């Protein structure tokens, strides 16, 4: 039985339950379930929080990446560069536009995209670079903006993170984020958003998300049906007001793990890239014989996980890219060693001590 979960959504809900119930009651009274004023209010609040002019709410994080790319007119025959070490949605969104994902390896100590490999992956067909802000810290986007290619941040795991003092979401040309329930800012279902400083790109995403329709029954381009609904906007606004405090709680928990594990050489601790203020969406360590260690943790009641066990190029979905094992050795190596420990703002010191005790017993 798992008694220390990887993520505890119940504890978070208890803090916003009354506010969400009151907000939902107002939505139910007006029946404005799609496009209600609460959606526009949340978009303005989240844009201000991420320090960009525009936030466009959409149906989910994968749609957010795709719509950001389509706003840049990415399509068949184009290429987009992204890391092999990411959740499949990053590559999936590229493929859904008709473009080809071009993969590069990651850096071993952070798991982030290896920017030194990006120039060798660029061609005349490259239409976008997609750095992934992994585990709650930002990729070094400033090293990717000088190639004359638009940068689309995958910011699903880094709501509130900063790089050199700049909030994620405003580091590139556009950014996509996810409000999947387990994210630092999570809805009670699917949801996502596109962030940008560009008036023109924001207008294009707004057009695309709603059937290519600037007004009812007028359709100027072929669009999609991908809207953030009003009930989810109520949840997200309530949670956004608490996000800074929750992220601070995550940082404190991460610091505690690092202190408790400092003298355990069998466990490789996560590294924060210089210039980053992370939000610790995940606390990911590396251990030998990971699968055995994971099973031992589960047997001890610790809900550890893996993010992610299979690099993009080794998934069946992307066999068509023609890659083989060994093509991205760093991503492949860490995929066999990474282990995500339970982490959420409300986790207690006692629970973390239990996690560490179980981990130490398992690795030794």
TrEMBL record:
The active site is at residue 183. This is dTDP-4-amino-4,6-dideoxygalactose transaminase. Coiled coil: none annotated. Pfam families: DegT_DnrJ_EryC1. CDD domains: AHBA_syn. Belongs to the DegT/DnrJ/EryC1 family. One of its GO terms (biological process) is polysaccharide biosynthetic process. Keywords: Pyridoxal phosphate. GO terms for molecular function: pyridoxal phosphate binding; transaminase activity. The modification N6-(pyridoxal phosphate)lysine is found at residue 183.
